[in-house]
Description:
Blueprint lengths: L2 H5 L6 H4 L5 H11 L6 H4 L5 E6 L11 H14 L3 E6 L13 H17 L4 E6 L4 H12 L3 E5 L7 E2 L2 E2 L4 H11 L5 H10 L12 H11 L15 H20 L3 H4 L2 H14 L5 H12 L5 H8 L16 H6 L2 H11 L15 H5 L23 E4 L6 E5 L5 H8 L4 E10 L1 H7 L11 E6 L19 H5 L7 E3 L13 E4 L16 E5 L4 E4 L3 H10 L10 H9 L26
Parallel strand pairs: 1-2, 1-3, 3-4, 9-10, 10-11
Antiparallel strand pairs: 5-6, 7-8, 8-12, 9-13, 13-14
Helix pairs in contact: 5-11, 6-7, 7-10, 7-14, 8-9, 10-13, 13-14, 13-15, 13-17
The site of magnesium ion has 5 residues, from loops.
Amino acid sequence: MSGAAEERRRLRSEIWFNDLDEPAETAVYLERFANYGITRGELQSGRPIIGIAQTGSDVVPCNRHHIALAERVKAGIRDAGGIPLEFPVHPLQETVRRPTAALDRNLAYLGLVEVMAGYPFDGVVLTTGCDKTTPACLMAAATVNIPSIVLSGGPMLNGYLDGKRAGSGMVLWEARRKLAAGEITEAELVDQVFNATPSAGHCNTMGTALSMNSLAEAMGMSLPGCAAIPAPYAERAAMAYKTGLRIVGMVHEDLTPGRIMTRAAFENAIVVSSAIGGSTNAPPHINAIAAHMGVELDIADWDRIGHGIGLLANVQPSGEYLGEEFHRAGGVPAIMGELLAAGRLHGDALTVTGDTIEASYGTSASRDRDVIRSVDDPLMADAGFMVLSGNLFSSAIIKTSVISEDFRARFLGDDGRFTVRAIVFDGPEDYRARIEDPDLGITEDCMLVVRGAGPIGYPGSAEVVNMHPPGYLIQQGVRMLPCLGDGRQSGTSDNPSILNVTPESAAGGNIAIVETGDRITVDLVNRSVQLEVDDEEIERRWGDLRQTIPVSNSPWEELYRAHVTQLADGMTLGFAEKYHDVGRVKPRH
Ligand code: FES
Ligand code: MG
């Protein structure tokens, strides 16, 4: 090596392309990569080689425009002196993958770890958007720990129905209720749902996609302002270019996920999650990323750190507006600026810019107080998740920001306490088959309970806990009933369900022995949910229980079920949590 080459830090990719001790292997690496036009000179120049993890494809339409955006990322990487190499990520399309895209989050994670560590990348641009793409990418970045930056794809444009904003998901939940009440036909339901999808991009509500991309930014993993730019906007392509430019600098600075995603960054994510009315899927995903980063974070932290934060973003399902207004009002920078001004964030945490959160967001503020409120004047005080426990489960969450006035008045009373009669369903098929059965005698005093919907039971954990009441109750004006389940629900749902029950029925949770007609007492002040059945009876029911867990239908389902942790713990592959710095170990030839 020349003196000049010794002075600059040797890049990871040079293990492949500049290993003078192994000329035969090096020659093979060089000749194959050169066969689509990258010259040997470029590959041996010591310029950073940047992977672009491509999550968009024909089967992931929420992220499909990343195929075009990647061209702008590549231009940025080139202009900063790097060499871009795009590669595919296992598809994760929330709306289409059966039985659920959640099953594949960990599969995409595994694949990403191997690709990021096993190929000659010095850094990686993570293209994110649709729900599970963001956590899968960040979990892998945490495990591999080479410089990584998130480029989100952005929400789609606003949808409208009868002149009113029609948000992704929201329109479906409302149409489902109207169909059950006989207010619309099946054909009308389909038409209404189409109104909510006017352009490329991910869901335009504060569902799991916009929540997770906002939290990726809040944790410092994307450039400031990235998360909320709508997919079709010119700014989105400009952000792609700037992200490409920046990752090259991050490689030279060795600015790794481990330096950015610290405990402080995760605490910031919890605070921002409350302020935006974030998805109920955020806790399992953020806890999974933390587990892979080796940062202590547990489900109780969400209530302890997050519950006391007010709702600032007036965005559906907790509020009124959609992604376009959220972006115009300042997006995540405005939220961060408002929270910083009130001393609610760790300002010293780093971002991908190399600057602190304080330096990156300290001067940002809301540009429209109707859409993004100040900390002193929130839409709702104490809007974060409550974490509940009791004899039914060790933990479950409830999203405070979607508890409506109507729901409060009907069920909660003054003391946040109510007792209901359980109507139990074994999985979503059982719910769909029996919800309109008059023999169930469902009244306003009931709680709909679904089980067999957890990570092991389903498998993958189904988004089914937001169950609508039978049609006759909806006709009487009861548009929601309290719901409880060991599955998840869509981040776009406005149902204040008690969900993500841990442990699930298939893992021995007491939700398995609840019977229709049992009484359940919910006490939100004391964070407790109590099945009004004594311990002896619970034990007797366990003795009698013949639980049927569906068989695995594929090798991956079997592997997943053998290792998956519970929702409170992020439904990771438990054994994978011990692997760290995988991309910082020199791989064998
Ligand atoms: Fe893909 Fe909502 S379904 S973002
Ligand atoms: Mg979903």
